[in-house]
Design brief:
Length: 312
Amino acid sequence: MVKNKTKNSIQIQANSRLHLGFLNLNCPQQYSYGGIGVSINKYPTILSISKSNKFVSNLSKKLNNQIFKYLKNKNLSVTIKIECHERPTQHIGLGSGTQLKLSIEELVSKYFAISDVNIFNRTFRSGIGFNSYKQGGLIIDSPKKNLNNSHVIFKNKFPTSWKIILLFDNKKTGLHGKSEKSFFSPSSSSNVRKKLSDIAINEIIPSVLYRDFDTFAKGLTKFQKLNYSFYPSIQKSMYLSTDIAKVIKDISKLFTVGVGQSSWGPTSYIFVNSQKDLKDIIPVLNQTISMYNNLSYDVVSVNNSGRKLTTT
């Protein structure tokens, strides 16, 4: 067997991400998908790998079987311990599954000093998770014909003074698995695609570069509303959670904010211009959200760095 070249423990901390919407859906004979997203500074995925006298892991049976099979097929030692110390709740729109699998693959790569580790055969319908993991910040992922590819159109540091209120509904989970895959069969109209591209290029990108929050907020909200036209058969509104929808509607009436749902939800977001604006919004939000026992919120910022590796 090939022995690992290090006896050290390696730890990785990966960001959660918000998926702010697709640029496109399925377009036969054309470039498809692509989208916009940001890394955030809370709800990390933290894993470690170290030497053991046998294969030990606190991950799911399915993941463990895939890892063990990969190690055996590559003639690598299976006497390792993989431990997940922290990870976000699954299927709520924070990209926890992607971050977990990318972290596992990089840990195996670093521990055994090998490249091109591909345990899970992931594709890149959306490259937001992969590129947020690597780079952080604001990412715009290119549409593609080959789902094995992922290229970034635009990457930039996000204004740290702009805050994000995350809204959670503990009674809901987002689309995932077979249900998610079946969604991607419809084709998007050229009219919607053109509008999405126009907002991304002429509103979202320059507003981030020039720190123009009002244009960013309006552009992002329009972008999300257009994305909803992709899936009215799955959701009755822009939001999986009708309670979150009511809260966001109330806040949007009173403040200039950028709003939407991350991925399949239910986690949704309210982008806020400054700490001062946040202080004005929070009392109103507290009063509104107190009407719903299933809702909670947290304030986060964009993380402009990628995952962190630590060797001990």
